[in-house]
Amino acid sequence: MTADTTSPAPKTGSTAMRKAIVVLVGLVVLVIAYFVLAAFLPRWWSLRVADLATGTFHKGILWGLVFGVVCTLLPLLFFYSAWSGRKRRGAKFVAILSVVLAVVTAIPNLLTLSIVLGGSNAAHAGERTLDTEAPGFRGATATGAIVAVVIFVLLTFVLVRAGRRRATKRAARSSTLS
Length: 178
Fold this sequence. Notes:
- By secondary structure, the chain is an all-alpha fold.
- It contains five helices and no strands.
- It has helices spanning about 10-55, 55-85, 90-115, 120-135, 135-175.
């Protein structure tokens, strides 16, 4: 028996074809998921908010402010964390985790935004539900988001300024020791 030591030439065409098919199938799945979720999520979110607000203005406004502030401020802080820690050891993991947490905490505001700006039947149904069952929620969410951005800008200003002061003090101490 003689062993054949030659190996067959790699089939680059079939590998590229398999990759193209996998990418195409992935894109089709994403498009289908988008249309399914676009038809479902605005209605579902408006019903969850309606359950929280129970048809009253004060609860609708309260929950709108809570979601607006929390679901805007937390993502901004997570993005700031990802940005400020980029030069540290293990920064890639922390940055990825921070971005994922930012997106997750922003989902309620994104769902509300999909109702407000959406043109689909689900978005219009969500608008009607919010108008009748959670009055004041949409406007309070926008107000809460603006308040959160102002808080974030002020907090960032204070943190950056404190960091510069510490760096200046360190530089002054090191120059006096030299």
